[in-house]
Fold:
Amino acid sequence: MKKLVYVLFTMLLLGTVGCSKIDYEISDAYEQANITGITIYAVTDNPVNIVESFEIDTENAIVRAFVPEGTDLTHLRLVLTLSSGATVSPALGGFQDLSSPLEFTVTSPNGIKQIAWQVIVAATPSAESSI
Structure:
């Protein structure tokens, strides 16, 4: 009798599991590997974001940030805002030389999508030099 109950229970369980259909939908956000913002701090006692403006070109994976004219680009702290759950390498930390373009790889949360981004920092020309 116990064997019969065990066999019937097993058949019922297998029939239920085998007939169920589970559809998983992956959110688009889980497949994003974008830089969505940039903050740059200069060496001061009072750290303040010195970015005057920035442009993010997602098609070509380029971020351009503009800081005040006369800023020493060789010793700045860079902070990147990424799409939700994404990671960046190399890791950011400390002060960096931003006088030449830097490359970062942003990886989506699911690890499938990796995009090589270029970050370019330049001084905003003064109003006098554009006249």
Notes: The mean pLDDT is 85. The two ends are 98 Å apart (CA to CA). The first strand starts at residue 35 and ends at 42.
